[in-house]
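Morning run. Coffee first, then this:
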Amino acid sequence: MDLRRLISLLGIGSITELFPIIALTLIIYWLIRRKNHKRLFGADFAEVRRKIRLNEIIWLILLCWFVLTVCITLTPTNFWYQFWRMVTFRSFSFPAVEFHQWRYIPIWWTYFVTYSGHHLSRSMILPEIIDQAENIALFVPLGFALPIIKKADLAKTVLTAFIFTFVIEFVQPFIGRNGSIDDVICNTLGGAAGYLLYLLIKAVFPNFIKKCRLSAKDFQNNNINISE
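And here it is:
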């Protein structure tokens, strides 16, 4: 398979286009967070930061996921490609925003049934399966991080994933994209899969999850002694 074709199928192009935005956001967040902790803990700053390192990494992963998801799903198609072309003085045009309607495309497990009726070619099946797999994988970080930083149970995690993706899909027709019920289903499944991943890691590495949950608030509220 051609490398460009593979990059297009996996959606890697969008991630590379958003890398500067994500990197800048993470740097700003890290600097603000670091300054705030230094103000709160003073001489104990370095020790506290060392103990809450894993929790801070989870927060950074969640922030990275949020920025990536919002930038990919809540901007017009090819917006960032056109944006960087304009920044580099290669083009001054943005994609036109048109109003669209909600659509329903049969979710991935129906393609095998549909294909048996010769309504789909093989070339159409693979991109759609990859697209649905990407939609599931996209929300795995949310499902994994929420139980750690918010101690959310399965119901709250799945509900959060559902509400977040429903809002995205509801807004998309107003920014030149198509809202899809399939995306709501797959994203919600991704949140559930992330929670199951959290349960698996918690069962195998309970101390790791315990360390990930240790946050600055625990020290700020004197729930844990810094010297421990």
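Confidence is low (pLDDT under 50) at residues 1-10, 99-122. Good start to the day.
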